[in-house]
Amino acid sequence: MGRTLAEKVWDAHVVRRADGEPDLLYIDLHLVHEVTSPQAFEALRLAGRPVRRPDLTIATEDHNVPTTDTLLPIADPVSRAQVEALRKNAADFGVRLHPMNDPGQGIVHVVGPQLGLTQPGMTVVCGDSHTATHGAFGALAFGIGTSQVEHVLATQTLPQSRPKTMAITVEGALPEGVTAKDLILAIIAEIGTGGGQGYVLEYRGEAVRSLSMEGRMTVCNMSIEAGARAGMIAPDETTFEFLKGRPHAPKGADWDAAVAYWKTLATDEDAAFDREVVIDASTLTPFVTWGTNPGQGVPLGASVPDPASFADPGVRAAAERALVYMGLTAGTPLREIAVDTVFIGSCTNGRLSDLRAAADILRGRKVADGLRVLIVPGSMQVKADAEAEGLDEVFRASGAEWRSAGCSMCLGMNPDTLKPGERSASTSNRNFEGRQGQGGRTHLVSPQVAAATAVLGRFAAPADL
Amino acid sequence: MEAFTTHTGRAVPLRRSDVDTDQIIPSDWLKRIERTGFGAGLFSQWRTDPSFVLNNPAHAGATILLAGPNFGSGSSREHAVWALQDYGFRAVIAPKFADIFRGNSLGNGLLTVVLPAETVDALLAAVEADPATEITVDLAAREVRGAGIVAPFELDDFTRWRLMEGLDDVGLTLRHADAVAAFEQTRPSWLPSTTPA
Fold first, then answer.
1. Which of B44, B71, B78 would best serve as a mutation to test chain A binding (most A beta carbons within 10 A)?
2. CB-based contact A24 B174, cutoff 8 Å
3. Which of A89, A169, A415, B196 suits A362 as a labelling partner, its CA being 20 to 30 A distant?
4. Domain for residue B196, yes or no?
5. Residues on chain B touching A254 (C-beta within 8 angstroms)
6. Treating both helix axes as pointing N-terminal to C-terminal, what angle do A352-362 and A213-221 enclose, rounded to 10 degrees?
């Protein structure tokens, strides 16, 4: 019987298999950032162990870094100490690091693909749950904890139990104005925040094939929000076109050999998935979350749901709690809800195409009075590319703030946070309580909806302008 | 890591679903570079509410956490496990755990026990009715006992053995260093290196 994409990549990386034990998988690329690595490096130091493969490891500073005044020392002493710890660890253990202000610096999941380090068929890990982003290339990529970061640093392997596979087939074409972000939010609302638990998801179908690599990264990025271990998309010409010529992509005869292999990775016709979900793309519309987990979302044209409409008592209780936290009343149309802040950025939607989409809407328009709009590129390279196209001028002219690269308000570990009670339209990936600042209220949206919302001051689609 | 064989203690009933790791340990706490001292940050935002269950003195000193489905969702932060352990928890019982959190917990000796939703509900009800209720989590027998309930749970033999011996994965894997080296010889030449191009 045939095998799925995930099974092929898995099987190609098994170092050791023993009855009753997890498989020992080889890791092709280990991405490191300042937040989840210090305790791992310290454990290596205590045990007198080196990093086994510094040449398969790369680090960047992203979670803590300020996005303004980046030439000044980091004001928060605890953040500064953590960034300095990464610098010392990278130097001591021989790991390549892209520090603040380096042209290669950026969010770890933007940096890997931009360098061409993320390639089809690879295993990629990082101490960050949004590592599934790299699955857009047909890599098996998943987030790990700090003990596992230590394990990979020390051994370049990871013991893992074999996951189940789920096909998510999106049939038909996405309607005009519906984006990759709307698609993944709709998928999460469909299968639930725990629906992917124990599975690797494979996104398939016409609507997925039609997405750009950046759109595919947006989809795979949020696989974890459905509880999945990873999300993948089979590599195709779109993938190869994106990779060709990137600094770390194969060259010459190696390129040809790699492409020949990559073409074998697609799921076989006769392979079986453990679960299959089919989504009709033609029914999708721009999506907005109303609650405190990414599964609590509805189409932009809908209203805040009534908790009483949920049959499951646990779901109902969670919805009631979410509405209290979010300060929302059931039945309010989403389009009538005003926001205080718009955040465009993150590993989900901080790439060049996201910024272009936002700029197309903000060009020649002004952001609503009193609204704070932060545009935070996913990497310094994205920033440079955007500035070369004049996007920074478009944003500034509209009244938005143009920042330096980092995770920024996605999780508010740097100074970019919401104040208690403030409401945001955010292109990031999590609307958990306090995610963007204690008491802050987050609604997840696409860059297009974020930009239109910035203009009107309440949730809107570009078509509303 | 501390070995886990069997543990008896009182429990905290956290009747909520989708408890994400941002709630277990908010991101402000993630700036620390140490592995200890996270207990003070456990559920720190929710603890500002006096009615939050962890603030109920009747549950002081409890060592088992009872929670709703999809516990530990979201961020991969292992700090969530460190916070639960530092606060004093030895085990968490829920109908379903998020994958990364589960891996992190079992890697650190915090036993995460999956029981059917009805059984967790019965335990929650028993502890809410009488906070002095003692619950035993017996890893050797793969069984939870308490409040008149005897509930078997599943955990694979390998993980059970590793927890009962208190072994960490790095040491176990290094026993197979030869297999790792042999595998490395078979990797295709086109695979990327992070050495600056």
1. B78
2. no
3. A415
4. no
5. 189-190
6. 100
- Confidence check: pLDDT of B197 > 80: no
Instruction: Give the minimum alpha-carbon distance from A360 to chain B in angstroms, rounded to a whole number.
Output: 32
Across the interface, whether the CB atoms of B188 and A117 are under 8 A apart is answered no
Tell if the CB–CB gap between A258 and B188 is shorter than 8 Å. yes
Question: What's the token pair of residue A368?
Answer: 């609503």
Q: Which helix (H) or strand (E) holds A216?
A: helix A213-221
Across the interface, which of A22, A56, A147 has its CB nearest the CB of B193? A56
Q: What is the DSSP string of A117-186?
A: ---TT-EEEESSGGGGGGGGGT-EEEE--HHHHHHHHHHSEEEEPPPEEEEEEEES-PPTT--HHHHHHH
DSSP conformation letters of A399-421: T-EE--SSSGGGTTSSS--PPTT
Between CA B186 and CA B173 the distance in angstroms is 19
Residue ranges covered by each domain of chain A: 5-160, 164-283, 287-464
Residue B74 lies in a domain: yes
Say if the Cβ atoms of A145 and B107 lie within 8 Å. yes
Q: What are A236's two structure tokens?
A: 């195709």
| Distance between CA atoms of residues A452 and A458, nearest Å | 9
Tokens describing residue A233:
């998309």
B1 assigned to some structural domain:
no
Binding-site residue positions of A for [4Fe-4S] cluster:
347, 407, 410
Instruction: Give the residue carrying structure tokens 């490191």.
Output: A32
CATH number of residue B151's parent domain: 3.20.19.10
**B115's tokens:** 């029981």
Contacts of B185 in chain A (CB under 8 A): none
Classify A343 as helix, strand or coil: strand
| Minimum-distance CB partner of B183 among A15, A22, A193 | A15
Per-residue model confidence as pLDDT tens digits over A333-354? 999 999 999 999 999 999 999 9
Q: Give ipTM to 2 decimals.
A: 0.95
- CATH class for domain A164-283? alpha beta
Residue A143 tokens, joined: 């987030």
Assign A96 to helix, strand or coil.
strand
- Asked if the domains at A164-283 and A287-464 fall in one CATH topology, the answer is no
Closest CA to A326 of A413, A424, A189, A415: A424
Task: Using alpha carbons, select from A343, A412, A350 the residue that is nearest to residue A378.
Answer: A350
Query: pLDDT for A40-78, tens place per residue?
Result: 999 999 999 999 999 999 999 999 999 999 999 999 999
- Where residue A426 falls (left for φ over 0; alpha for ψ -120 to 50; beta otherwise) is beta
**Contact flag A321-B16 (C-beta cutoff 8 Å):** yes
Q: Which residues of B touch A122 (CB under 8 A)?
A: 191
B55 vs B130: CA distance, rounded Å: 16
The number of domains in chain B is 1
| Residue pairs spanning A and B at CB distance below 8 A | 206
- Whether residue A146 and residue B30 make contact (CB cut-off 8 A), yes or no, is no
Burial-class residue A263 by CB neighbours within 10 Å (0-12, 13-18, 19+). middle
Task: Please give the Cα distance from B41 to A25 (Å, whole number).
Answer: 34
* Inter-helix orientation angle B79-87/B99-108, to 10°: 50
User: For residue B175, what pLDDT is reported?
Assistant: 94
Q: Which two tokens stand for residue A52?
A: 């086994």
Domain limits for position B26: 6-186
Q: Considering the domain boundaries, does residue B191 fall inside one?
A: no
**pLDDT > 70: what percent of chain B?**
100
A5-160 belongs to CATH 3.30.499.10: yes
CATH class of A287-464: alpha beta
